[in-house]
Here is the input.
Amino acid sequence: MKRPIIPHIGMRIVKTAVAVMLAYSIFAVLDLVYRKDYQGIWGMLGPNYACIACIVCTQSTLGQTLRQGVSRLIGVAVGGTLGVLVLLLGPVLDMPWVKALALGGVCVAGVWFCLLLKRPAACAMACIVPCVILITEVAGDDRFYYAGARIVETVIGVLVALLVNGVLPTNSRPEEPGGGAAGVQRVRLDNTARKLCVIGDPVEHSKSPLLQNTMIEALGLDYVYLCQPVPRGQCAQWLECAKFAGYAGFNATMPHKEELVPLMDELDGDAALFGAVNTVCIREGRAYGYNTDGAGFLRALASEGIAVAGSTVLLLGAGGAAKAVALKLSQAGAEAVYICNRTVEKAQELCALDPAGRLHPAGFDGETLKRLAAKADLLVNCTSLGMAGTAGQFADFSFLDALPRRAPVVDLIYAPAETQLLAQARARGHRTMNGMGLLIHQAVLSLEHFTGTNINPADMEAKIRAVMGE
Ligand code: NAP
Here is the structure.
């Protein structure tokens, strides 16, 4: 691409300038510009490190979110504490080699502590602040005032940067073709970012990159999530590539979930039970296979307050999604799950997988659906009927008339947000839930496996629903 002759002054530069001006003005207005006649910490205060913090925060590739700002505040706290602790060594610090060792030590300790807190964005401040405190000619008790002043300045700078980042828009450039549209997630990357992706054939339609990058950004994690087409039958080659390229892991969608099973070094219980892997973590060259669909479905039900234990469930479909949902419902203590499928043999095969014997196969004709709906406490549609982009639709919805009013109706489909089944159920007074909850919760569980962090799904839900346009 041809570079413009006149450099573009982007919003990040504007933000930096505004933040620096604002930070300086605060100190100037309060008459705190290194007034030697003031006592203690006040005499040491000035705008210098506040401006530096503003520059660091607004220039940083990751510095534009609240979480990143908070990370930097944590960095200041960690770095400031370390700097002050090292000052307690006293006059011995005047020896150059002791100071050099101390500088190295505070940097190692600062980075280590921030990584322990899972705050990589805090590392820079955790090193900068103690170095600033230690590299000074100030002596005696004044050193502590000096340290306090640097910490206060830096905190003010970070707060100003946060304010400016929050108030000013992110980008003043016109959107590039294909960029910034709804459903497109832009990520800012550090060179250390660990790679994740979703594989499938086809996979370009996948919402996983949007979901995962939204969570990665919100959590300030140093990961990036890509979309990787892998042709059917080539999972083994892909796994080798992923290991060689240093991927931390990947998700799998159609048609790879079953093919991955024998390629795993270890399988978790659900992946083994469902005979399908949707999440692969690569750790020290070994592949660990998980399946988060069933657990994600249970979490989605729980978040809507829908109880499973002791209930009778009418489950429509016997494909891949139905398998995970049905077996997990059985595990969660459902009294009976009736699997109604167009191809009854597939329903029978699915029911045979249930060690608890709570799954019962049935047909998909109107009479059967009506008979089983009458005794159901919960109805779950796991067929693709009603999904956007497919021609199939329920022949009639009269089986819903037999369903007790208290029974919630769940559709795994999330596009459209309300299928005809859900609309018909809502019109009859049933509580309804679409497949967005499952999509979100299985993704949260996958990211927990990839990163080893605990994620609060409630925090993520609103963000994901917003980017998904719900
Ligand atoms: P699948 O393995 O292809 O299974 C499709 C199911 O739909 C089968 O039981 C199939 O019955 C049934 N079906 C298809 N056309 C039908 C028709 N005209 N009449 C009656 N039954 C019909 O697909 P899947 O992976 O299980 O996915 C099923 C649905 O769940 C899809 O809509 C998918 O989008 C959704 N899903 C959502 C999430 C989420 O995160 N929310 C996750 C996974 C799946 P036969 O066995 O007789 O062919």
Q: What stands out?
A: The longest helix spans residues 142-167. The CA atoms of residues 2 and 8 lie 13 Å apart. The pocket of NAP is lined by residues 317-322, 341-343, 346, 364, 382-385, 387, 392, 412-414, 435, 438-439 (CB under 6 Å). The mean pLDDT is 88.
